[in-house]
Amino acid sequence: MQITSRFTIAIHILTCIDYFKDERRVTSEFLAGSVNANAVIIRGVLSQLRAAGIVSTRQGSGGAAITRALNEISLYDIYKAVDCIDENGLFGFHANPNTDCPIGRNIHKAMDKHLTNIQNSMENELKKIYLSDVVEDTIKQIQAENG
Amino acid sequence: MQITSRFTIAIHILTCIDYFKDERRVTSEFLAGSVNANAVIIRGVLSQLRAAGIVSTRQGSGGAAITRALNEISLYDIYKAVDCIDENGLFGFHANPNTDCPIGRNIHKAMDKHLTNIQNSMENELKKIYLSDVVEDTIKQIQAENG
DNA sequence: AAACTTGTAAAGGTATTTATTACAACTTTG
DNA sequence: CAAAGTTGTAATAAATACCTTTACAAGTTT
Fold it and tell me: pTM (2 decimals)?
């Protein structure tokens, strides 16, 4: 299993929007070209980012823009926006353990606390990384390939 | 997306094996009853745990046993045994970004380092929790429901 | 009005996961 | 040694989740 690629697509999109913002209108079609995915996928991700207040889009005229400073958007914000994982839902539980068995009846509660802590620690790491970090690293990569 | 339920099934199984070890022979059929899953699924998980040296099983006579002390088996050991997630594979990348675009060509490398760190920090948390912790908590839950 | 773009629903396809069936190999017991 | 019970594993089917594509209404610009 993997965290949905919508998350890395979202980071890709946001990096593109910032990179090309002064150069051209960044439409879903253009972004689809860079990501190499269908434009409807891109529009779906943009929809989620818009609902989270991270980007603005305009019908008709087209083009997406980032609404906040890059160092005010954490990877956690993006992760939450594209709805990667339910609250406490990182670890899948098997449905309907047998309640006639003392273990089946209680194991879920016993595991929950620990697994929630693990998920929280992962999400806390996401909060420490900002879109600005990724954009800077991407630009370094681009400069490295030219020099 | 979620981490496969084989992980929580494995913890459930191991807790059962320990809990019932002095009382009865713990067969895959019995475990399937507690988990409420098909016995073949249980045998598959037991196979993986056996390959990792966490349990031993016996053909014919039947029954599974844990090979180490519970406080020497971390949730990370179990997580690795049941092959939840590939190395650096927690976050799914969209395949084939457009290499004609400077962002498409470089974003992957720029994200990789950060996402690997996040996955590592999650896995390090798994190393801090032992099967003994989960078993103790489960027994506390059982005692609480009786008293 | 024409051309272009976003927003979203709906249908189709693909991949992954889980469940089931089947049976060979092994162990114990009478 | 035969019968009963169990593990180990392959193969197939079913269910679920995910991604892609088609279609079109609604908005904007020229």
Answer: 0.91
